[in-house]
Amino acid sequence: MPESSKKDPHVKPLNARARSANLTRESVLKAAIKVFAKYGLNGGSIEKISSAAKSHDRMIYYYFGNKEGLFVAVLEEIYRRFNEAEAKIIIDKNDPVGSLKRLIEFIVHYYHDHPEFVTILNSENLHRGKHVSKLKLPTQYSSKAINVFYDILIAGQTSGVFRQDVQARDLYMMVASMGYFYQSNRFTLSTFLGEKLDQVETFESWEKFVMQAVLRTVSTKKEP
């Protein structure tokens, strides 16, 4: 029997009731992400969420306590998804430049491909981080992201291709801010700049610029 098919004897299988409860909770959470992304915390009512989840208001109160409790769970979930996706990036310590390029591409594309991540964080920032501070371990979400930068940066500094005076936190914030700003302000910027930032060519041009800007920042090589 292959290893993947063996069951852990210490893990008890969920009964039908427990499976149903998990599915209901997940359904409410997925619906809440869509509703909060569209209407924000203030506009995302319990009624809208229960309707989108094809559930009942009482189930939301049962699993999450209230709307704020649900919003905290949503923040936890969107950060979990980000970290889970980031963990799939192949980090090769023998190729720190290539690894950094893959990480930059991932972050820029993640913001672009997951607008719900950006809009929910926008809503939370309007509330001055009130709910994210209620996460069980709030720093674990950012630390995981920064640690990926740290591992790549150390590899590059050890091999001499990256500057010694660059910190992983600053590098993370540089890439995140450039990717986030483009997505969160694309509508107003499209009007002010007179070009559609949602166009594929425009986004690809910005991605290339971010890549070059970051690599120039960390590289020990001087531009001719």
Q: Would you mind describing this structure in some detail?
A:
The protein is an all-alpha fold and 224 residues long. It folds into 2 domains: 14-65, Arc Repressor Mutant, subunit A (Orthogonal Bundle); 72-224, Orthogonal Bundle (Tetracycline Repressor, domain 2), CATH 1.10.357.10. Helix content is 71%, strand content 0%. The protein has 10 helices and no strands. Helix 4 (67-86) runs parallel beside helix 7 (138-159). It is globular and about 60 Å long. Mean pLDDT is 88; it is low at 1-5.
Which characteristics define this entry?
single chain, 224 residues, Arc Repressor Mutant, subunit A, Tetracycline Repressor, domain 2, 0% strand, globular, disordered N terminus
Q: What best-fitting shape do the alpha-carbon axes yield?
A: globular
Would you tell me the overall average pLDDT? 88
Number of strands: 0
> What number of structural domains do the residues give?
2
A few lines on this structure:
By secondary structure, the chain is mainly alpha-helical.
Describe the protein's topology:
Elements: H1 16-43, H2 46-52, H3 57-64, H4 67-86, H5 96-113, H6 115-126, H7 138-159, H8 168-184, H9 186-193, H10 200-218
